[in-house]
Amino acid sequence: MGVNIDVNHLFPASAIPDMIRKAGERLFTCHISDQDDHERHWLPFEGKLDWRAVIDAFVEVGYDGPLIYETHIKNIGSIKEAVATIVDNYHRLRDYAIKTGAGV
Question: What is the pTM of this model?
Answer without folding.
Answer: 0.89
